[in-house]
Specification:
CATH architecture of one domain: 3-Layer(aba) Sandwich
Radius of gyration: 17 Å
Distance between the termini: 21 Å
Shape: globular
Oligomer: single chain
Number of helices: 7
Helix content: 25-40%
Order of helices and strands: HHHEHEHEEHEHEE
Strand order of the largest sheet: 3-2-1-4-5-7-6
CATH superfamily of one domain: Vaccinia Virus protein VP39
């Protein structure tokens, strides 16, 4: 797999390159933007802007998938945060059950995660978003617990947006491959291709290295990386959203 190199491009060039990535996936970015705009309006969440810390190109990509990837019935989100993405998913995929998981309050990692976002007001607001659609199922569980969870169903789409450093993101991505149906979509947020001087929960090349290993092991198709955000102020370090599918058959067959 070729490394994605940091390049200084104009906004116009980044938009052109982004649209080309969508086209190679058989998707249309303009259609995705229209779909996410409609979903945000229906959900009462305003308009799309990448200056909102929780709104990035992953929403446009999910919008494009909602118009060109069949009708997913089971979707898993790893990392609920404020609940808005789960709510948006319920509007983009009206036939799907959205299962979203996040840490329970008694988990040792809980208090250190999201920093100030564990306030009572934050949790109340998150629960209000999650409660707006009955097809959204919130489960308080450490994502590592999925390792021993015996699922009786296969997911059609999994969105991984939890801890982005080793070992958690590596385990989350491996579990996603295990839990997806053959040909199911795997998306991962905050992928960094160049090893940072110091890895953190939010800045690490761990997802990139894990996705590369899964691809080389013939478990997923070669991932496509799209820009997480296109604006100039988001260039350093450049982050990507990865999208791939689980392999239907081995390349050796």
């Amino acid at each position: 797999m070729c490394e994605v190199k940091e390049r200084r491009l104009s906004l116009h060039d980044r938009q052109h390159e982004q649209s080309a990535h969508y086209s190679r996936l058989g998707l249309n970015r303009g259609v995705g933007m229209e779909a996410i705009s409609n979903a945000l309006y229906a959900a009462g969440l305003g308009t799309f802007s990448e200056d909102d810390d929780m709104f990035s190109e992953h929403l446009v990509l999910l919008g494009a998938l909602s118009r060109g990837a069949g009708e997913p019935k089971e979707i898993l989100e790893v990392g609920t945060y404020d609940g808005r993405t789960a709510l948006i998913l319920s509007h983009l995929f009206p036939s799907a059950t959205i299962t979203t998981i996040d840490l329970p309050p008694n988990d040792p990692v809980y208090g250190a995660s999201y920093e100030v976002a564990r306030s009572k007001e934050f949790v109340t607001r998150r629960n209000e978003y999650l409660g707006r659609n009955q097809r959204v199922k919130f489960v308080e569980i450490n994502s590592l617990g999925l390792t021993r969870k015996q699922e009786t169903r296969a997911y059609d789409l999994i969105w991984v947006d939890g801890d982005h450093d080793f070992p958690t993101v590596g385990i989350d991505l491996a579990n996603a491959v295990r839990l997806l149906r053959p040909g199911g979509y795997l998306l991962c947020d905050d992928v960094v291709t160049a090893k940072p001087s110091r890895s953190t929960t939010y800045l690490s090349d761990a997802a990139h290295r894990t996705l590369t290993a899964l691809w080389r092991a013939d478990l997923i198709e070669q991932p496509t990386y799209i820009y997480k955000r296109l604006g100039k102020r988001h260039q350093h370090p450049r982050k990507f959203v990865a999208i791939t599918t689980t392999r239907v058959a081995s390349r050796a067959t």
